[in-house]
Amino acid sequence: MAANESVNSQPTELEAIVNRWLVDYYVSLAQELFEKELYADFIDVRTVIDSVLSRPCEITNDLHLKIEVLKFLSRINEGENLGEKNINALIMTHHFLKIVYCLGV
Q1: Which residues contact 87 (CB under 8 A, 6 or more apart)?
Q2: Which of 9, 65, 86, 92 has a 20 to 30 A CA-CA distance from 103?
Q3: In CATH, what number is assigned to the domain containing residue 46?
Q4: pLDDT for residue 4 is more than 60
Q5: Rounded Cα gap, residues 89 and 49, in angstroms
Q6: Is residue 42 scored above 80 in pLDDT?
């Protein structure tokens, strides 16, 4: 019986790791789609990410930052009546966040 308990506990740990990989991949894909202005596809990928995050997922500081950037992009995408000036400021902020993320600051 103890062996079964040990085996049964492993998939949760493994699932959390695999889900982290999935979220990492899909966040990168969502960012690419957003940059290419493929907003419908961006929303579809964001839905997949939400589904994966509803399962056990190992959240690292790095992944947490990526999710925050995704939330930021989602707000830009969903924004209406932001005005051209505000949109440009948000896009510049997005580019800044990408630089900070790449530098690992």
Answers
A1: 76, 79
A2: 86
A3: 1.25.40.210
A4: no
A5: 26
A6: yes
